[in-house]
Amino acid sequence: MNFRKATENDISAIVEMIADDELGEKRENYQYPLPMEYLKAFEKIDADENQELMVVENENAEIIGTLQLSFIQYLTYRGGIRAQIEAVRIRKDQRGLGTGKAMFTWAIQRAKERKAHLLQLTTDKKRPKALQFYQDLGFKATHEGMKIHLD
Predict the structure, then answer these.
(1) pLDDT (tens digit, 9 = 90+) per residue, 134-149?
(2) For domain 2-136, which CATH number applies: 3.40.630.30, 3.30.365.10, 1.10.10.10, 3.30.300.30?
(3) In this structure, is the dihedral angle defined by the CA atoms of residues 126, 129, 134 and 135, taken in order, positive or negative?
């Protein structure tokens, strides 16, 4: 497996994976050509040194997974850095083959390289398999997360 920073040419494959589940299909707009919102978002992510949008390729250089790491500087923990992992997706035909575990092994190592003291994530309660997967990797549900949608 090859981990590399995403390029503009990868956006379509990334959005396709993000849209390819019961929650993503309701909130994403995967079509060809992609709506400009995705390209504009990519430009902002790509320009921010604290954002790492990654793709995972197989031995044939096909994109089989994606994730985004955000590094958040704050004052607590003596000016610590918190890493947030988001939008973890694996191409449907590659699920259950160890790609997810490899992606998290990579993300944990990358967070350590960036001197983060913590790697966190959120997962939708409607994804019980994902929750179990994260727990099996050692993640603990130590806090209660809350959201408010701002429409």
Answers:
(1) 999 999 999 988 889 8
(2) 3.40.630.30
(3) positive
